[in-house]
Structures are given as structure tokens and as C-alpha cells.
């Protein structure tokens, strides 16, 4: 299960998220999304768990959790919508 982690402080590292969430279950991936030009964190990321139960536990445990002064927003990741700019009419 893939979950969304929002409202991340810019100084938070993927290793810190890994350490926080690996206590719940086996992680497949941890990714903080960064600006393609500056390389700075965009304030959100994604964590993928091996199974759905662990993802649901992470959402209930860490949604609203204070991390480095910011209240995390944690929920199930939604599929990315297609970009209409690339369509030809």
C-alpha cells in the first residue's frame, strides 16, 4: 500500500521517514518529492508498505503526528491524474 505524507518540514530526510515508519512494517520504498530545479523538498512524499494492513496502521498512527514542529498529513496515496496539456485535439 502506498501512502502520502504531507506537510513535511524541508529539513526532513528520507532516512528519518524510514526510521519513523519502519517500526510499523516492511517498507518497499520511501521518497520525498523534490523540486527538479533547486533540489529542495516540496514538502511531501510517499511511503510504500509491503501490505495494506501496515499502511492503514501508519495512517491511523501518524496522521496529525508532530514531526520537527509540523503536523503530518498522512493518507492513502491517490493515482496521479493525467496531464491534459499533452493531449492533441
Describe this structure in words.
This protein has helices spanning 14-21, 52-62; strands spanning 2-6, 27-34, 41-49, 66-67, 70-71, 73-76. The protein is α+β, with helices and mostly antiparallel strands and 89 residues long. The chain has one domain (2-78): RRM (RNA recognition motif) domain (Alpha-Beta Plaits, 2-Layer Sandwich), CATH 3.30.70. Strand 4 (66-67) and strand 5 (70-71) form a beta hairpin.
Key phrases:
21% helix; Alpha-Beta Plaits; two-stranded antiparallel ribbon; alpha+beta; 89 residues; 6 strands; 2 helices; 4-stranded antiparallel beta sheet; single chain
Element layout with pairings:
Blueprint lengths: L1 E5 L7 H8 L5 E8 L6 E9 L2 H11 L3 E2 L2 E2 L1 E4 L13
For this structure, what is the CATH class? Alpha Beta
- Could you tell me the strand content as a percent range? 25-35%
Strands ordered across the widest β-sheet:
2-3-1-6
Global mean pLDDT: 91
Under CATH, the topology can be stated as Alpha-Beta Plaits
- The residue ranges in which pLDDT falls below 50 over 5 or more consecutive positions are none
Task: Describe, in short, the structure shown.
The chain has 89 residues and is an alpha+beta fold. It has helices at 14-21, 52-62, and strands at residues 2-6, 27-34, 41-49, 66-67, 70-71, 73-76.
